[in-house]
Amino acid sequence: MPHTVGYAPGVYDLFHVGHVNILRHARSRCDYLVAGVVSDEMAARAKGRPPVIPLVERLEIVRSIRYVDAAFVETVPDKLETWQQIRFDVLFKGDDWRGTPKGRRLERDFATVGVQIVYFPYTVHTSSTQLRGALDALTGGRVEAAERADSSRNHLTENAAQKST
Length: 165
Hints:
This protein has 165 residues and is α/β, with parallel strands linked by helices.
């Protein structure tokens, strides 16, 4: 039975070294690491556009990372609701959240249930947003248009991914 359960939520779109860094650092700070993979619908609400990579594929990528013990499809915006399902002891976030209103709210909410928030350095030189921008520049915006066309397909794959967890 694990002593410390860690939770590392993210969209994990266009998986890159920053994602690996967060998961590696998170795993070094807990006995059992659950990666929360944000659903396509939640990602679109939070970022204003759907992920490039559909949920089932992002889930498979994250599950395949050696630092991850389990992957969980995150379908609700309230992390405390997610905590009620998983019961993690530590929540890991990039330090771009530190000191922000969202980060302070996270710290305040989780203090009520004894969950520690640990921030790791954000990988500044690589981000999914930068990669997405480069793809759009290379394709003349066709990636964004294709995403809109695929959004209904992505929504259907969320149901399949949730059933596989």
